[in-house]
Specification:
Elements: H1 19-72, H2 74-109, H3 116-129, H4 133-146, H5 151-163, H6 167-181, H7 186-202, H8 206-219, H9 223-235, H10 243-255, H11 273-313, H12 317-332, H13 334-360, H14 362-384, H15 387-436, H16 447-493
């Protein structure tokens, strides 16, 4: 092929080509090229669409076949699901049990082992118990070399120093034990403080002893440590001005549990059996004295309540009605009483006296029974006369007294409601009678007004007489509640 036609050349027809001819031919050539490219693209798209359609058709056929298969095994899949759920539940239960077992194993195997300092400290304690003071001191010092802040080692060194006759050195070690145990070991903190309390008393400083003892109790408020403080105070005798300290300590001992364990916090106390026995005796006597007061008060209340209930329960309700009727007849006359009694007043009187029945009935009898049971419990503790039994009796005594107060208060409230209702009923009826007295009986009054007037006269007379049967009950329960509350202050709150 020849070269492309240019301007000034001749075309195939022999005509001279102009610039416009060249541009037109170039544009036409570009269009032809784009058309060929477009056709190629369309052909490629058609080919891809055909391939895609073929693939989709095949997949549709496969999915259809799969759907048929799935519909065929639907029930089996559902059954398998339920089986899997049950299996998972069983696996969860087994996993939980295994986790708990692993936790137990971890606690047993991963617990912190005793440090060297603690081993030296334990060895020092054993040596000191056998009287080998020099060896005990050496082991305690080795413990401090491992851990300078080992409070137990300082406490042991203080004990060794005391045994060797070096009280100043002992005090320093006790104070170091207190410092290092503060906020970490409340028990050690308190033990070292109680030792300082004892040493202060032995040095003649009761004020320091009291301060150390109470600081020990605040650090670790257990009865064992407080009891140890009381024994320390007793061990040093009773120097002048110290009795008040001991009294407060003994009273506090009684208020707290745990006295079944005699806390000998210091080995030196083992050598002071006489002082320890004296302290035990004093604590036991103080407890017994308080229980004796409680027994005396119950012995005063129980026969009184028993006699009171017997008296009021023995009164025949029909006798009460007869008495009230007679008093009403004296007030408004037999004719009016007879006219109103059976029809109206008997019903009103029964309603008014229900409060009396409640106040002296089964509830009151049950209260008396609980008081007897409480008295028996206290008496049994007192008869055993051990620190454990006496403390058990004193522990439950506040709740027994509070229950007695609650029972008697409930009975008081019932009798007060009855008394108030009767009194108010009488007052209302009396007011009606007073207001309408001048108009009743005149020619202008109707029959209804006269009937209402006479009925209110009967109600007023009935209620006033009925109050006489309920008011003594209210007064008795009011006095009993005050008595028991005063007994609680005497037995529990004052100490």
């Amino acid at each position: 092929m020849g070269s492309e036609p240019t301007i000034g050349s001749f075309d195939r027809t022999g005509q001279l080509r102009t610039r416009d001819d060249v541009v037109r031919d170039a544009v036409q050539g570009m269009r032809d090229e784009q058309l060929r490219t477009g056709k190629q693209i369309v052909a490629s798209i058609d080919s891809a669409n055909a391939a895609l359609a073929s693939g989709l058709g095949e997949q549709t056929r496969m999915l259809g076949a799969l759907g048929d298969n799935l519909r065929g095994v639907g029930d089996e899949v559902l059954h398998l699901r339920y089986s899997l759920e049950r299996g998972m539940d069983a696996l969860h239960s087994q996993a939980r049990l295994q986790s708990e077992l692993l936790a137990v194993i971890a606690r047993a195997t991963l617990a912190p082992s005793r440090t060297k300092a603690q081993e030296f400290e334990q060895r020092a304690f054993s040596l000191m118990q056998r009287g080998l003071l020099a060896e005990a001191r050496a082991e305690a010092n080795r413990s401090l070399e491992e851990e300078p802040y080992q409070w137990g080692a300082h406490h042991l060194l203080a004990q060794v120093s005391e045994a060797e006759g070096a009280p100043e050195e002992a005090v320093e070690h006790y104070k170091l034990a207190v410092r290092y145990a503060t906020g970490i070991s409340p028990r050690q903190h308190a033990l070292s403080l109680t030792a300082l309390a004892r040493m202060s008393l032995e040095a003649g400083s009761a004020a320091d002893a009291e301060a150390f003892a109470w600081e020990a109790y605040r650090a670790n408020p257990t009865a064992e440590l407080l009891y140890a403080s009381a024994v320390y105070l007793a061990a040093a005798g009773e120097p002048e001005g110290d009795a008040g300290v001991q009294d407060r300590l003994y009273d506090a001992v009684i208020e707290h549990p745990g006295l079944a364990v005699v806390a000998m916090a210091e080995p030196r106390l083992v050598k002071r059996e006489h002082a320890r026995d004296a302290a035990l005796t004093r604590v036991r006597d103080a407890m017994a004295a308080r229980l004796d007061v409680a027994l005396t008060r119950f012995d005063e209340m129980i026969p009184s309540l028993d006699e009171f209930l017997r008296h009021h329960q023995s009164i025949d309700p029909n006798g009460i009605r007869s008495f009230v009727r007679a008093r009403v007849a004296e007030s408004i006359g037999e004719q009016q009483t007879r006219a109103w009694w059976e029809r109206e007043i008997t019903k009103d009187l029964g309603t008014m006296l229900n409060g009396r029945t409640h106040a002296i009935g089964q509830t009151a009898t049950a209260t008396l029974g609980r008081m007897r049971e409480a008295r028996q419990t206290i008496a049994q503790a007192r008869a055993e006369n051990t620190i454990e039994s006496l403390h058990a009796g004193l522990t439950i005594l506040p709740s027994l007294i509070d229950k007695t107060v609650a029972d008697l208060t409930a009975l008081l409230n019932a009798s007060e409601r009855a008394t108030t209702a009767m009194t108010q009923m009488a007052a209302n009826a009396e007011h009606y009678v007073a207001v309408n007295r001048s108009s009743v009986g005149k020619w202008t009054s109707d029959v209804g007004e006269t009937i209402a007037f006479n009925r209110n006269k009967a109600v007023a007379a009935t209620a006033r007489v009925a109050v006489r049967y309920v008011e003594p009950i209210r007064e008795y329960y009011d006095g009993m509640v005050r008595f028991v509350q005063a007994a609680r202050i005497e037995i529990v709150d004052r100490h």
